[in-house]
Amino acid sequence: NATLDIGPASTDRRHMLVSSGSMMMPGGLQVGAVWTLRSKMPFSALSGLDLNGDGSVTDYVPGTSRNAFDLALVNAWRAQNRLGPIDATQFDSNRYNSLDARVSKALRLGERRKLEFIAQVFNVFGTDNLFPPGAGSYVDNALSDSFGKILSAQPRQQGEIAIRYAF
Q1: In whole angstroms, what is the distance from residue 65 CA to residue 133 CA?
Q2: What percent of the chain has pLDDT above 70?
């Protein structure tokens, strides 16, 4: 039934805000930051079985469709397959929130050459940003004990230092 697949792609994000800025400080020190916020992505519940006999286990939980998730229908499906219910608190969110900061200082070495010292920190506040679908995605098999979980995450914080020589 092709109408079950109408709706946003599983990688769609309805809301995204990216804000950035930089400022030259006294002494030639440059400070900058980028803050990225994204809403969570749509989620679909797959049945975990080949319900239509096409050889693929890509059928939705009966009564649901693409990105039309209904926990009551999922729990009814799990009960029908002799599994316990899932609580709404089990589901992870792939909302994204990261502040990246950079500080740099350039030293002129004559008319055309420059040496730049750079320090960067990514995800300054150490937010847990779980991977979106397609890159360590949700477990979408409704018959799995890990249903609704995202099993991988981006690094909490990373730092980088560099020296750049321009000539």
Answers
A1: 17
A2: 95
